[in-house]
Amino acid sequence: MAKAKLTFDTEKCKGCELCIQFCPKKILVLDTETNQKGYFPAKVTNIDECIACGTCAIMCPDSIITVEKE
Fold it and tell me: What's the whole-model pTM score?
């Protein structure tokens, strides 16, 4: 059962990969499809592994990630 809910505003994501680099569980990747601006947005691969630490949201320069503990 997931401990967190991650929400990405994929249309605003520029695919900078900072959230991916700093995720302690290494569960974030770039999507294989582009957003409307032509960037590959970040997404979570296994929400059940998320510990809701919020590091991804803190590292995001555009504040496109919301972390909610469940």
Answer: 0.91
> Residue 46's CB: how many other CB atoms inside 10 A?
11
Range 11-21 average pLDDT:
98
For 35, the token pair is 């957003």
Asked whether the beta carbons of 52 and 3 are under 8 A apart, the reply is yes
Say how many domains are in the chain: 1
Three-state DSSP class for residue 42: strand
Indicate the DSSP class of residue 35: -
Four-point Cα dihedral 18, 20, 23, 24, nearest 10:
-120
User: What CATH number is given to the structural domain containing 41?
Assistant: 3.30.70.20
Q: What is the pLDDT of residues 19-62, one digit of tens each?
A: 999 999 999 999 999 999 999 999 999 999 999 999 999 999 99
Domain span at residue 9?
4-69
